[in-house]
UniProtKB/TrEMBL annotation:
Residues in Fibronectin type-III domain copies: 170-260
Keywords: Signal
Domain of life, per lineage: Bacteria
Organism: Paenibacillus algorifonticola
InterPro entries: FN3_dom, FN3_sf, Ig-like_fold
Signal peptide (residue range): 1-30
Protein name (record): Fibronectin type-III domain-containing protein
Length: 339
């Protein structure tokens, strides 16, 4: 699924467009590779269900989506009477939960998902599919504030080994990106996914094409792409990175760079006098916007042109044209090959 932000600028055709109780080298709660889950880039808490999740005994970070070997995390009770049977995450904003993904290394334990909405209503989801298949609920769960994955089996021989767990739904936060072309390049802005991540900026010249990373380690939520060619459409995707692992990517946005076009604006006055100006298309558009507004009865009576040629000894030269003295005008656009 891709989103597209489009802005239109007159005459310029601008398109815009969880560390575990035992220390593991990798933790296992991540999202389905290449998909955008609600838990992507989030840090999950792990602790004991009988403490009402008040104090997490550890935090589980994202991993590299490796679903083999010992890259799992354990949920359950060990033979030293230590309780780490619950993993939970609390959203900053309520979410609609449509589906889930759960992949375990074994079939031990009894895993249950608990979803709590903003009113404190708790939904228990049992008989979970643990085979790494995206499973859709028959009815979406609305306004969910907190999610938990619990091993309800207290036997020390029933510890669940979980590779990955994630939830999917709408709205998916922080996947939006906006691209706007300007004189200095294409300005990208996006929402922050979560604290503690950096971003990669990917770019291609074909929608859905093969992306090239043009920037990495970006700590903010904006980037100005100056390595662009005029009159070219670029497509962008922002990827959130935690611990050198891609954990969430945005929708796609596009923008077309501005053409370095100019125009000869010829204004014919009511007395037959012609006034000629060599302008950028942005300047032409500004004049036309003034004229249209004044024609609708809004704005100043006169419009000024700052003349940068033949200034002679003067600090500045300014031409003023009066609205009701304009008979007609024409715009002769040409390509500026000097830039």
């Amino acid at each position: 699924m891709k989103g597209l932000f489009i802005n239109f600028t007159k005459s310029l055709l601008v398109l815009s467009f969880v560390v575990s109780f035992f220390v593991f080298e990798k933790s296992a709660f991540a999202a389905v590779p290449t998909d955008n889950g609600l838990l992507n880039c989030g840090i999950l808490n792990r602790g004991a269900n009988n403490t009402d999740n008040s104090v997490p005994i550890s935090k589980l970070d994202m991993n590299d989506n490796v679903e083999t070997g010992s890259s799992y995390n354990e949920i359950g009770h060990d033979d030293k009477n230590r309780d780490f049977d619950t993993v939970w995450y609390q959203f900053t904003e309520p979410k609609q939960i449509d589906s889930y993904y759960l992949k375990t290394q074994n079939t031990l334990g009894t895993l249950v998902m608990k979803l709590t909405d903003v009113n404190g209503v708790v939904y228990d989801v049992t008989s979970l599919n643990r085979n790494g298949v995206l499973t859709t609920f028959s009815t979406p769960y609305q306004n969910i504030k907190k999610v938990e994955l619990i091993n309800t089996n207290t036997s020390t021989s029933s510890i669940a080994h979980v590779f990955e767990w994630d939830l999917f739904g709408t709205p998916v936060a922080s996947q939006s990106i906006q691209a706007v072309a300007g004189a200095d390049g294409i300005q990208l802005t996006w929402e922050n996914v979560t604290d503690g991540v950096t971003y990669k900026v990917n770019r291609t010249t074909a929608s859905g094409g093969t992306y090239t990373t043009i920037a990495s380690g970006v700590s903010g939520t904006s980037y100005l792409d100056t390595s662009v060619v005029k009159n070219t459409t670029y497509f962008y995707q922002i990827v959130a990175v935690r611990n050198n692992v891609d954990c969430s990517c945005s929708f796609e946005a596009s923008a077309q760079t501005l053409q370095n076009n100019r125009a000869i604006l010829v204004i014919t006055m009511t007395n037959g006098l012609e006034k000629e100006y060599d302008l950028t298309m942005a300047e032409v558009n500004a004049f036309m916007d003034w004229y249209d507004a004044k024609d609708a009865g809004v704005g100043k009576e006169k419009y000024s042109f700052n003349k940068t040629w033949n200034k002679g000894p003067f600090l500045s030269r300014t031409d003023y044209v009066i609205f009701d003295k304009i008979l007609f005008f024409e715009v002769n656009e040409y390509e500026d090959t000097t830039n």
